[in-house]
Task: structure prediction
Amino acid sequence: MTQRWAHTLAIVGFTVGAILASPAQAVESVVKRTTLLVSDIERSIAFYKGIGFSPWLDRAGPRDPNGSVGMPLNKKSTTSRIVILSGQHPDWAMIGLLEFDNPALPWTRDPDDKTIGTSDAVLVIVTDDIQTAYENAKAQGANILDGPRAYTSNSVNGKKFGWIMFLQDPDGWVIEMTQVDRIEPYDE
Result:
């Protein structure tokens, strides 16, 4: 597993791991944010703004590259910047964009590889306007993997009808984006 994906899984899965390690103690958890390590934070901010997110927090500053606490980075970067973006809900389902610099982190995966496999992550985003998101992403040079196209799926609440597309952000993170037009309840 590459360090990039290991970091993402560690960030997202920490609470789940704690629950599984101690099943006797019931814990309620929710994923509040997924943080993506990016190579050009300004380019990433522009991309995610184009598909419906807006900056909620922007912090930058020095970091101790020899500190005993922190992510196990593959370079000893001395500065970092995190921008947290929010979607339609102000408190959850946020995306963090995190860039390390001086020196920049090297790629742990070939950025030109457009395929995914085990240990890769897929960011699932629901939008109310997939066509505009598609046009904005395409205008920024996003790699559109599939769609947008009509789709149906069986959900917990009924059969969903809408639109789906798969694309990659500027750093190659895969996004599944859907627009739900209607849900038909299952017959009782």
Notes: The radius of gyration is 18 Å. Residues 64 and 70 are 9 Å apart (CA to CA). The first strand starts at residue 33 and ends at 37.
